[in-house]
Each structure stands twice: as C-alpha cells, then as structure tokens.
Design a protein that fits this description.
The chain has a single domain (6-129, 137-186), classed as BB2672 (60s Ribosomal Protein L30, Chain: A). By secondary structure, it is an alpha+beta fold. α1 (52-70) packs parallel to α3 (100-110). The protein is built from three helices and seven strands, in the order ββαβααββββ. Strands 1, 2, 3, 4, 5, 6 and 7 form a seven-stranded mixed sheet that branches. It has helices at 52-70, 93-97, 100-110; strands spanning 6-16, 28-38, 80-87, 120-124, 131-137, 148-152, 162-170.
C-alpha cells in the first residue's frame, strides 16, 4: 500500500477549571493530536483500500504516545478517549473509516489495554472544517460522566487530496458531571461496556 505522507501535525491541550459551578480542585485536561496526511485514494474510486490501515498503524502509535506525553506520561491518568477523521473534498467518507483500527488500537496499546470501544466520527470537508470528536471512558462505555467531545480543526486543512486524522484523550469526567448513571468507581471491566 502507499506510504503515509505527513504534511503537518497539531497538538492541543485544554484545561477546564469550571463550567459555571465551583472551581475543580484539579482541572479536566483534554488533549488532541491532529495529523494531516496525503489521501492516497483522493480523486478516484479504489475498491481495495483496506491495506492502508496497516500503513497507518505506526502513525497511530506515535500520535497516541504524543498524547500520553502531553498529559503527563502516566497511562493511569487517562480516563477518556476518542478518535475521528476529516477527509478532504476529493476523498470519500470511507477513507476516514480507515482510521478506526489504527487509531483505536494505538490508544488501547498506549494505555495498557483499555477495554472500551473507542468512539469515532468522520466527515468530508474542506480546509478549516471542524470536527467534534466523541469521548467515552477508556474501560466502560456506559460511564455517563465521561460522555464528552472535543472540537478540533486546522485552518488550512484538509486540502482536497488530504485527510486529517485525530486522536483525543482526557484525564477525567466532565467538570460538574452530575446526571447519574454508572460511575467510574462501579466499573466491572469485563466487556468494555460496564
């Protein structure tokens, strides 16, 4: 399959201290890394694209390690994650789906075997397109306090023949989470759901 050609990368870290209520003792940290790569399938329909997922795995691992580093380096500090892709206008939505395996498994590996499915979103768009990347708890998808999202985007990306692939990690629940449901302290960790 084609080589992964990286044009640029963006790393963003947010620290959220409060959402109108009392100031948190420790801020929620959300971090995203966006990699803008050439889309080797742009401008044409290609029936066999699955092999490119294997080529994307080293990029996914490098991005996951970078996120872990900017969040302090301790995998146990990461409680939430998500992934996404923005495909340039000469591509198709299915090209963004190529990021599911390399992005998700990279984060699971970097975090030492997180159990929950990594939520994902993708869309086709031009330069400056923004993407809300969904986030859930790393070990149990039903932990309601960790349902979140982080908006990402780069002003000049993706160009028509590019894709922007995204990984997000967070250090905790939404600030002031109080809508009930399964708590992180109640996770059984058997199936990635509860």
């Amino acid at each position: 399959m084609p080589e992964v050609v990286l044009r640029k990368q963006q790393v963003v870290v947010e620290e959220i201290f409060h959402e109108g209520g009392p100031r948190a003792a420790e801020p929620l940290r959300r971090a995203a890394v966006v990699s803008v790569i050439a889309n080797p399938f742009a401008g044409r329909y290609e029936a066999d694209i699955e092999g490119f997922m294997e080529d994307l795995k080293p990029l996914g691992l490098a991005m996951a390690q970078r996120l872990l580093q900017v969040l302090g380096g301790d995998p146990k500090a990461v409680q939430g994650y998500g992934k996404g892709a923005i495909v340039g206008a000469a591509g198709e939505l299915e090209h963004g789906a190529l990021w599911h395996v390399p992005g998700g498994y990279a984060m699971r590996e970097a975090l030492g075997g997180a159990k929950a499915i990594v939520p994902s979103t993708k869309k086709v768009g031009g330069p400056g397109t923004r993407l809300d990347v969904p986030v859930t708890h790393v070990d149990a998808s039903y932990v309601r306090s960790h349902f979140d999202a982080m908006e990402v985007g780069i002003p000049d990306s993706p160009r028509a023949d590019e894709m922007a692939v995204v990984l997000v990690m967070t250090t905790g629940p939404r600030i002031h989470a109080r809508v009930g449901g399964l708590k992180a302290s109640e996770i059984k960790g058997e199936d990635g759901l509860r």
